[in-house]
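Figure S4 source data
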Amino acid sequence: MDVQEPQEQFEQESMDEQAEEQIADSDVAPLPDPEPAAPSQAPDSIPSDLPPIETLAEGPAWYVIHCYSGYENKVRHNLEQRIETMGMKDMIFDVVIPTQEEIEVKEGKRRTVERHIFPGYLLVNLTLTEESWYVVRNTPGVTGFVGMGNSPTPLRPEEVSQIVKRMEAEAPTVKVTYKVGERVRIVDGPFNDFRGMVAEIDMDRTKVRVMVSFFGRETPVELDFLQVEKA
């Protein structure tokens, strides 16, 4: 699975209001587009004439499934129920929604929220067979596996490691709701309630440089991300 090539595809697929505001992070590779949508019905029995899987991985692996953004929790619930009722615990082992803690500032108040790292995507750990593919593929809300045709593409171990590392990060990230060139209000520190224009955003240092007017003169002021919000 190529890490760099599907970058633009995944970003376009996941581009909603939540994804537009999330913090860019090049450490975790985005995911490619899923296969076409599955049938709307989800029978509780597995047919005997399933199409063969073109490429079977040896042993359990992590796969990516796609759903509509905002329905991740519902899809996970649906899939976990089907694993139970259809007796697939020995083939489908875990369903994970990649999330991370994030600090955001709203109306001058800080709060910690849980954000989906890949809106519209879930990770499933399974042993790939025709039966396990069918159970996942026909779960209500699932629109496809990531992969080509009848051959889902497993994540490489290093990709899984990167995602887990991001999920288990001790320090929450900071949600940046403003861009260079936008007007912002300073909400903390000696320049509290001053307004200015964003001149530079340093993601590595979590600092923002704001041009503030003092005595009719524009002066750059360096601030922490959490000291600034959109005006």
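Figure S5 source data
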Amino acid sequence: MAVIRKLEKPQEANTLYIIDKKKSVEEHSDANWIISYADMMTLLCIFFIMLFSMSKLNTPEFESVKKEVAEHFGTKYESPTEDLGKFINMVLVEAGVQKQVTMTSDGTSVAIAFHSTMFFDTLSAEISPAGREIVDKIATKLAEFQQKKIKKYKIVVEGHTDDQPIIGGPFPTNWELSSARASRVIRMFIDKGFNPKVMLPIGLADTQPLAAGRNADGTWNQENLAKNRRVVMKILLPETDTIPFGKEEAAKTAVPDPKQTVQPASGK
């Protein structure tokens, strides 16, 4: 009996050893690839989070994509500037100038384009009485609106001229004229109590025309010149960290005849 027991023990031991070996191999093959995959996905996730944190979001383009996606799936798109746009439109209606201005929005700001003659006389940077009334109305109503919304909007004013050269007068070039006009409008907002740190005047002269200033034969196109002379007031959301210039696609200007005599500025 003792001999038989001695022979049975090694067999049991061997059998148990083989079973344990198979179990350990199976557990090892099931766990390793899952852990490696999870580690890789975690690292990739952290990598893309770091890239996103270091990048700057192009808000206008982002809002454009959101709008397209919403229209594609049949859902309603709500612009971040929707309430602001409705408010500005109401103010323009109250001022009676809604038909004389152009209002646009890019998701970060609401822009109002005024014809320069509504604010300024030819070659002047002094705001006319009618222009003062309009700016005063907008500034007063906006101050009330941002207090109600508990927001501090940023304001950018762009001065635009036509491309006719200035001959004579207090301003040597269109750059000085457009800058002085933009600064004068900003000054009215500051006088109404707006924070100068969130306001910016920009003189763009004739660098962003809406239409070609000259005809194909090189003569001035007075209608197009009138379109290019404008003041653009932009009201930006408080969280906007870059200035949306909203550059319109400039029309191709006909090359002037070098023999043609330069005409003095008129109606700037």
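Residues 1-55 form one domain. The chain has two domains: 1-55, 82-236.
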